[in-house]
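Ticket #4471: structure output looks truncated?

Reporter: J.K.
Steps to reproduce: submitted the chain below (238 residues) through the standard prediction queue, then opened the result file.
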Amino acid sequence: MCSLEKRGNIFILTLTGPGEHRLNPNLLDAISAALSQVRADSSTSSALITTAEGKFFSNGYDLAWASTSGVLSHDRANIMSSKLRSIVADLISLPMPTIAAISGHCSAAAVIFALSHDYVLMRNDRGFIYMSELDIGLRIPEWFVSLIQIKAGTPRSQRELMLRAAKLTAQDAVKWGIVDSAHVSADETVMAAIRLGENLIGRKWDGHVYAQIRMRMLASVLEKLGYDESVSLTRPRL
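Returned output as attached by the reporter:
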């Protein structure tokens, strides 16, 4: 599912294995447990990097798990939504800088997971960012929209993501202000994230002050996390 490594004051959370890293309850629980461990083991100045093995960073919610005969189970969709909302709230309140190192394809709810980090780096040689909801007939939850409006640059960038369902390469995503930088490979993306993490740790900020500032910046997202109107659709195109 995932592993957690500590290098000095940098935590590296890796979604492990060659699969799509679909956000089903098992993976979401594993990520949540890892974040709890990060919070418990953090020092005054730490940083978190999230990345993944294989071709995919994550291909979003596990709609196959949540569907029967092509019809989405509202109860199962709510389980995934509730667990992701809890993870995003944890990331927003985590007392350290957070960096997503996107190592492959990143789709739908996984884009939201990545954008919930303070910095987003992405490999340039493979993969795309893709909000697929429009293409498969999903309504985008209000809290997804709220986060994208804060994190994804201009209204034109938001239109590319949500109203064109554009598949954006790393260079495209940098141009549209969605990710911070593009790198030549998955390994270099992680190494760049480590360098950034070391630089941020070197500032010796108080992590709790950092978290409080972030929570105020994302107050509108936190407000919307308290209720669910997730993945509303009748028959997803799986």
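Triage note (M.O.): checked the attachment and the full token line is present. The mean pLDDT is 93.
Status: closed, working as intended.
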